[in-house]
Design brief:
Rossmann fold, 4-stranded antiparallel β-sheet, 8 helices
Length: about 230
């Protein structure tokens, strides 16, 4: 594990917040604890963080609103949501806002640590983005290192997950990218919510490429996806 990675923790439950902060400190993560989304956003603007953990239900500014504001300035920092809700719509909303994972209360500290480490391994390692780094998709250029999809008149800054998923599609151009393979490569496991999260990202990639008629992402029923070009 890297030394002294810094985490922004927004949690309005003081007891849980202190417990989490002390546990993460013991695991060698420097952690800033803020009691609401507004204070957390100010802290985010003033400091550099490697990962964010946001409670969804907070006073003044909730976790989803906080994540949305952060995503407007930073597309790539990993965000984990803590939620007392397990409703599908809430989880999917978190993924649509660019969340990387969620964990439902009550949870074990070990489970949270596992999710943090899995995300940081994925986002901090360049190995997933090694090999070919530039792809041509019709009028678009896909630059993996810059996490960017751009043309003469349009630029889309991609999140880490969008980059990894589009790279897998490009590496399997005109062939089927198996759904379970993509899930286990990018999301670690193929759970229901991770599968729905991947569907959200596929929809985003289609939106980015919608004005390029020679490029299309197809659903292959029962198998996965195919990038045609």
């Amino acid at each position: 594990m890297n030394n002294k990675l810094r985490i922004l923790l927004a949690e309005d439950d003081e007891n849980l917040g202190i417990l989490l902060k002390e546990y993460l400190k013991a695991k060698n993560y420097e952690t800033d604890l803020l009691p609401d989304g507004e204070k957390a956003f100010l802290s985010f603007q003033r400091n550099v963080y490697d990962l964010c953990i946001f409670d969804v239900m907070m006073p003044i500014k909730d976790g989803f609103t906080l994540a949305k504001e952060i995503r407007e300035t930073n597309k790539t920092i990993p965000i984990i949501f803590l939620t007392a809700k397990s409703l599908k719509d809430d989880v999917l909303q978190g993924f649509k806002l660019g969340g990387d994972d969620y964990i439902t209360k009550p949870f074990s500290m070990e489970e949270l640590l596992f999710r943090i480490e899995a995300i940081l391994r994925r986002t901090q390692s360049e190995s997933k983005l090694s090999g070919q780094s530039i792809y041509k998709l019709g009028k678009y250029t896909f630059d993996i290192q810059k996490q960017s999809l751009f043309s003469v008149d349009n630029t889309h800054k991609l999140t880490t997950k969008e980059t990894e998923l589009l790279k897998l599609l490009c590496d399997n151009m005109n062939d089927v990218l198996e759904r379970n393979y993509a899930l286990k490569t990018i999301w670690i496991d193929d759970s229901y919510f991770n599968a729905r999260s991947m569907d959200v990202y596929i929809t985003k990639l289609r939106k980015y490429l919608k004005d390029e008629p020679d490029i299309e992402i197809l659903n292959v029923h029962g198998k996965g996806f195919k990038l045609l070009g």
